[in-house]
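Figure 3 (text version): structure tokens given as input.
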């Protein structure tokens, strides 16, 4: 779950790759199924620059599970935050 502008919540679901915007009162504002999203997510979390279509930040080692700092053993979901300026937040 990710809070979005206006107080609503963006919810992503692993099964079926659904993305839904829901009010705090539980009303579904919109819901869409993400195309070509597969599970699992290659043992990492990434932030992608939509304009450049490039990874600008990553946590975890691609295709390498682990319990040590910098590794993920079993990531089980992801959030899509299309509202945040990630490049600005990362100083990129």
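Below: residues designed for each position.
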């Amino acid at each position: 779950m990710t809070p979005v502008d206006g107080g609503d919540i963006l919810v992503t679901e692993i099964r079926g790759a659904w993305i839904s915007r829901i009010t705090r009162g539980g009303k579904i504002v919109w819901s869409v199924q993400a195309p070509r999203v597969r599970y699992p997510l290659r043992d990492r979390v990434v932030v992608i620059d939509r304009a450049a279509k490039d990874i600008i930040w990553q946590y975890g080692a691609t295709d390498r599970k682990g319990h040590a700092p910098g590794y993920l053993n079993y990531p089980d979901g992801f959030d899509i935050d299309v509202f945040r300026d990630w490049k600005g937040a990362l100083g990129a």
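The CA atoms of residues 8 and 25 lie 9 Å apart.
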